[in-house]
């Protein structure tokens, strides 16, 4: 029996910095290990591949227990922008690329980037609204076909 993972399909459902980066890091790691990798962007995760939004993904400061901020502090004007700036500086020091560059890099390795048809319909998005690296907008059934025989990861 082969215990080696050969393929991962990663569902990206959150449109925040801390929701997108784990998926990108996991997909990049999978490709570096020679695994097939596909990313399925659904609901607010579509912000990561939306041409109008993917360069401005921010940290969610309200209701984010990992930040250890009260809801009042997290909701202050500018809190999200400040936390995003702080994290982006730290990631830059660690040589972690910004989301647009990371998406391009991952797609260039052969990973598949896909938009969720139901979510695209919900938010009135078409292929021309998504970044060039997106291969297609697919249904959940088509995603399951792509994922067959591999591991599904939900971030």
Automatic annotation (TrEMBL):
<dbReference type="Pfam" id="PF13686">
    <property type="entry name" value="DrsE_2"/>
</dbReference>
<protein>
    <submittedName>
        <fullName>DsrE/DsrF/DrsH-like family protein</fullName>
    </submittedName>
</protein>
<dbReference type="InterPro" id="IPR027396">
    <property type="entry name" value="DsrEFH-like"/>
</dbReference>
<dbReference type="InterPro" id="IPR032836">
    <property type="entry name" value="DsrE2-like"/>
</dbReference>
